[in-house]
Design brief:
This protein has 326 residues and is α+β, with helices and mostly antiparallel strands. The chain has 2 domains: 155 residues, 3-Layer(aba) Sandwich (Aminopeptidase); 158 residues, Aminopeptidase. Strands 1-2-3-4-5-14-6 form a 7-stranded mixed sheet, with helices on both faces. Strand 11, helix 9 and strand 12 form a beta-alpha-beta unit. Helix 3 packs across helix 12 and helix 7 crosses helix 8. Bound molecules: coenzyme A. The site of coenzyme A has 19 residues, from helix 7, strand 11, helix 9 and helix 10. One of its GO terms (molecular function) is N-acetyltransferase activity. Belongs to the acetyltransferase family.
């Protein structure tokens, strides 16, 4: 019987990967970005700051499946990974091949010091949900009430037409010396979200991960007279529909709200996403956080959990470590 081999994807895999991506898109009835080509995959995935990484499953020198992932960042637990896609071609034993690829991905993620493996799942894909759950991934939409929000390309274009930054406020990219202030605001946001024990990382970790050899996130701060009054932290995403930006945190100090600072920070995130040809801006909101939900909806973002059944799944570090041992 031929042997199944899983390994990290290489630039020379891009033609075969592209064929699998097209098959996955057809199976899931989701259109592939018409501008995406094998060469495009090479450029995005194997350039100086890769937009995605892959794990491939190989049998008889042919690719029979792939997992697509990218690094993300949690302001609570630091480096994380998002498994965007897990696909096995028609003729294979799906669960075995998918498990082998996921396991390889988790091995790579643990070696990069990631403490979470995130997955976005669809409510009506019951088989996939069972598969994730049987490997101990948790449905966070169910357990913590996180909803998936998305601003699409048209709303992004409309939103960035505005350019107003409130008087006296400076919006600028964060520098390493902002990490202490950002860490404090991360705590303020966690307190607001009623999860004060959430943030585990310190300012030093933020410094290494945002400004070290490999950059895991971008951050911007809002300042008034030298005082930090808000921040946003974000990173870039990729799937076969196109590139995107994920806003992990957006926070404005209570005494500075309703002046347009939140919008100015969010606009900066979207502009950075659009500069990379991003076509969506995603983020998570707790279902009870109605003022923020109203704020996001009023600017054209949609609750994809409500509309399309998007769910957040997560394998935590403990389960990741158990998974690779099996
Ligand atoms: C959400 C948050 C970042 C918004 O920041 P902000 O600086 O207060 O918001 P802005 O002043 O930029 O918002 C201004 C715009 O949003 C609208 N808006 C703000 N709050 C709103 C609400 N509750 N309902 C409807 N619209 C709202 C305003 O009407 C205004 O629009 P306009 O200029 O067209 O009139 C801020 O309230 C916050 O930090 N909240 C707590 C933390 C949080 O929930 N963060 C998001 C986690 S997912």
């Amino acid at each position: 019987m031929s042997q199944l081999n899983t390994r990290e994807g290489k630039k020379s895999d891009c033609s075969s990967l592209y064929e699998l991506v097209k098959e996955a898109a057809q199976t899931n009835k989701i259109p592939v970005d018409p501008n995406l080509t094998p060469e495009g995959l090479e450029e995005i995935g194997f350039g100086p700051s890769p937009g995605f990484y892959s794990i491939v499953a190989e049998k008889d020198h042919s690719l029979v499946g792939y997992a697509l992932y990218y690094y993300t960042y949690s302001t609570w637990e630091g480096r994380s990974v998002c498994m965007e896609d897990l696909f096995v071609t028609g003729t294979e034993n799906h669960n075995d091949v998918a498990t082998a690829m996921w396991k390889k991905l988790v091995e790579v993620a643990l070696a990069a010091d990631c403490g979470r493996c995130n997955i976005t799942a669809l409510q009506d894909k019951k088989e996939m949900l069972n598969f994730y759950e049987c490997h101990k991934a948790i449905n966070l939409t169910k357990s913590e009430a996180w909803h998936f929000f998305r601003m699409n390309q048209d709303s992004m274009a409309e939103f960035v037409k505005g350019s107003k930054v409130p008087e006296g406020i400076t919006i600028r990219e964060a520098t390493p010396s902002d990490c202490i202030g950002i860490r404090k605001q991360i705590q303020d946001l966690a307190d607001y979200e009623k999860m004060p024990e959430g943030p585990q990382i310190d300012a030093e970790v933020l410094k290494t991960d945002g400004f070290g050899k490999q950059v895991f996130y971008k951050a911007c701060v809002a300042e008034e007279e030298g005082e930090m009054v808000g921040y946003t932290l974000y990173f870039f995403t990729f799937n076969w529909e196109g590139r995107g930006v994920y806003m992990e945190d957006l926070y404005v100090s209570p005494s500075h709200r309703s002046r347009g600072i939140g919008m100015a920070l969010w606009r900066k995130v979207i502009r950075d996403g659009m500069a990379l040809q991003g076509i969506r801006c995603d983020f998570a909101v707790l279902d009870w956080n109605l003022p923020s939900i109203e704020f996001y909806k009023s600017k054209g973002a949609a609750d994809m959990t409500e509309l399309r059944g998007f769910l957040f799944y997560r394998m935590r570090k403990e389960e990741m470590e158990e998974f690779v041992k099996k």
